[in-house]
Amino acid sequence: MEIKKEIKKLGLIGSFAIYIPASILMFCLTKYLIPYLSKTTGQETILFWFIVAGLGIFLPLIITGLLMLKFEGFRISKNTLVERLRFRKITIRDILWSFVGLILVGLFSGLIMKSLEILIGEFDHSPSFMSFEPLTVGRYWLLLVWFPYWILNILGEEFLWRGVMLPRQEIAFGKYTWIIHGFGWGLFHVSFGWQLLITLIPLIFIQTYIVQRTKNSWVGVIMHGGLNGPSFIAICFGLI
User: Fold this and answer.
1) What letters, b where the CB count within 10 A reaches 16 and e where it falls short, cover 117-143?
2) d(Cα 141, Cα 114) in Å, to the nearest integer?
3) What is the Cα–Cα distance from 12 to 156, expressed in whole angstroms?
4) Do 30 and 46 touch, CB atoms closer than 8 A?
């Protein structure tokens, strides 16, 4: 396709020159800054995860993506969003792929969690900086902090990983791109701990494969946001 002639391939070195610093940033902020802010203020760590991750991790991902586009010679426009970043009109086929993908992710992640519980016993699937009790009266205001974080989370990751990087990686790795891309996306989540990281494997690879297959970045938004958002709300109200 013509659009692929307008962008340069992104190989292993270039890809992991982005994945590795992003992973280190995530590790440092979650390991040191968030616990420090929580201990100093006496506030829940989840509050500072929303603030620090939103402004200190996901916003920089958006900025990185914008800078990459600028260096490629693209400016933000409707054509860039549709052709270069592949935020294209959603079709019935895209919706079906997203729906099937979410079902598969739910099934495989559930199997992994149950298998881990059998092997090592009951454990907290969430890292310490994300752990919190279901919301009670007087704590519902946390939802007001969560919502902009959620937008930055989904926008930041889907804009950079799937919109900016994936099309360039496809030029370098072809049909195997989803494997390389998934591994790099997983590396970004290393600070979440091995238990949660293992349960994220289905999402990481299935979503990446489906976005590559459909060539529509909105599919990633639907799957990623459709999993993160409702699951958080369910935890907030003690449903899971």
Assistant:
1) eeeeeeeebebebbebeebeeeeeebe
2) 33
3) 21
4) no
DSSP string, 143-200: HHHHHHHHHHHHHHHIIIIIIIIHHHHHHHHGGGHHHHHHHHHHHHTGGG-HHHHHHH
Structure tokens at 64: 């990185």
Residue 29, helix vs strand vs coil:
helix
Q: Which residue has the higher pLDDT, 37 or 116?
A: 37
pLDDT for position 240? 64
CA-based nearest residue to 218, from 226, 232, 58: 226
Q: Which of 113, 111, 106 minimizes the C-alpha distance to 207?
A: 106
Cβ-contact 204, 182 below 8 angstroms: yes
Q: Residue 126's Cα: distance from chain center in Å?
A: 15
Q: Where are the domains of the chain?
A: 2-236
Phi, psi of 24 (to 5 degrees): -65, -40
Per-residue pLDDT tens over the stretch 42-81: 999 999 999 999 999 999 999 999 999 999 999 889 999 9
> Average model confidence (pLDDT) for the chain?
92
Indicate the pTM of the whole model: 0.91
